[in-house]
Design brief:
Elements (H helix, E strand, L loop, with lengths): L1 E3 L5 H12 L3 H4 L10 H6 L3 E5 L5 E10 L2 E9 L8 H15 L4 E7 L3 H9 L3 E8 L2 E9 L1
Parallel strand pairs: 4-5
Antiparallel strand pairs: 1-2, 2-3, 3-4, 5-7, 6-7
């Protein structure tokens, strides 16, 4: 089940971000941006959704919001215990469905160029690379999926 995040979810969301992104610190040379996000503010703004299994156990989260005619997918992460079970794909599908419901024309996102797995996952989900550039000291790869 995917539902809007509430303040009580912040601890699980932060733990999930830490577990999902810690492995990239060495490759990037610093903490990936999602590890230091202001999750409380994002939850309060209604930008965060969580995935739970049938028993209500936290599986992962996604952060997205409308931005200038498209949906911006800012962050998606899955607990290691839920990896490979389709949770991330379900969260991204949820984001895409919400964008369609809102009448938006595309999903846009970026990932760090050192997150090699993402560079192959997003194209398999229909996303097309649109740009590569450095922002805030991170080398980012930008993707878009037209809806």
């Amino acid at each position: 089940m995917i539902r809007p995040a509430v303040a009580a979810d912040e601890t699980n969301i932060r733990a999930c971000a830490e577990s999902a992104y810690t492995r990239y610190i060495e490759a990037i040379g610093r903490r990936p941006a999602p590890m230091d996000a202001d999750f409380a503010a994002k939850i309060s703004a209604g930008e965060v959704y969580v995935a739970e299994d049938d028993d209500g156990v936290f599986q992962g989260f996604i952060v997205f919001f409308p931005d200038d005619g498209h949906m911006f997918l800012e962050n998606v992460a899955v607990m290691p215990s839920a990896a490979g079970k389709g949770v991330g794909k379900s969260l991204i599908g949820f984001c895409e469905a919400e964008a369609r419901r809102q009448g938006l024309s595309a999903i846009e996102l970026y990932t760090n160029e050192k997150m090699i797995e993402n560079l192959s996952i997003y194209p398999r989900l229909g996303y097309v690379e649109t740009d590569r550039r450095s922002e805030n000291g991170f080398n980012r790869v930008f993707f878009e999926k037209k809806l």
